[in-house]
Write a structure and sequence with these properties.
Elements: E1 14-17, E2 20-24, E3 28-35, E4 38-42, H1 48-60, E5 66-68, H2 83-92, H3 97-105, H4 110-121, H5 124-139, E6 142-145, E7 150-153, H6 158-177
Helix pairs in contact: 2-5, 4-6, 5-6
């Protein structure tokens, strides 16, 4: 696959170096690479609009892709040491409002992409560990303001917290049906 095929628009900030697609925003941010003969898109929260436009372009052109994090996007292979950080980054990105709104609207199938990654690298136990850790340390973490008698959550949007609680079940169903 030629990485030049997936440039989503005529924006001059897109640049290709060493067969990696970069976006220039305060520096060069790697957003897409072909690793192990698969297209990976980096879910980098430093530049949300470019990676969303890249995802939407791939969806419109029916190009298969997987998600990656910003530390492994420049690698040639996905190693077992990196699987937990990739899963963690993929799960943490649902907290980003624009990205979550695309998931909820059904513009792309987040669960199917995540399930394909888990099946490809056979890392379901890693997913379970990361999911439970993030669930307790981030998505369900809250504190009580005793004077106002209110709970404050780290993840402010309630629909994001509710969606996160259903991810594990949906992935289990998707694995079972595939």
């Amino acid at each position: 696959m030629d990485i030049r095929r997936i440039i989503p628009n005529k924006d001059k900030n897109w640049e290709i170096r060493n067969n990696i697609l970069y976006y220039r925003k305060y520096g060069m941010i790697a957003l897409a690479n072909i690793i192990d003969d698969e297209l990976y898109i980096c879910l980098d929260r430093r530049c949300v609009k470019p990676f969303i436009s890249l995802i939407m372009y791939c969806e419109n052109k029916n190009i298969d892709y997987l998600f990656c994090d910003r530390t492994t996007i420049t690698e040639k292979h996905i190693y077992n040491e990196n699987l937990q950080s990739i899963i963690s980054n993929t799960l943490m990105c649902i907290e980003e409002d624009k990205f979550f709104d695309l998931i909820v609207s059904g513009r792309f199938d987040y669960i199917e992409i995540l399930t394909r990654f888990l099946n490809l690298y056979d890392c379901h136990t890693n997913f379970k560990e990361v999911y439970e850790k993030l669930k307790s340390s981030h998505f369900e973490r809250h504190w009580m303001d005793w004077f106002a008698n209110k709970n404050y959550f780290v993840v402010k949007r309630e629909d994001v917290r509710e969606y996160y609680q259903t991810i594990e079940r949906e992935i289990k169903l998707s694995v079972f049906l595939s």
